[in-house]
Amino acid sequence: PRLSIESLISLFQKYVGKRGYNCTLPKTEFLSFMNAELAAFTKNQKDPGVLDHVMKKLGTNNDGQLDFSEFLKLIGGLAMACHDSFLKAVPSQKQT
Length: 96
What we know:
single chain, Recoverin, domain 1, calcium-dependent protein binding, EF-hand-dom_pair, EF_hand_dom, EF-hand domain-containing protein
């Protein structure tokens, strides 16, 4: 499915509003988001602490929560990884 700016905002708001937060994604909701929306990523991880590591790496201010800009870093990083995988899977074409 195609993602739009509105759907990214809606997705973020879906998880930040669950416990009364409206601007940040606490760790519990981050884990819920990852397990529900990115299950393929989380299920393929061999390290059980990978989600903690991801959240710590994304959280630039060390408050244990992700704001929208930190959330977008996650989405951007995943998009880059998917794009790289796509490029590796497609046979290279010589430019003429």
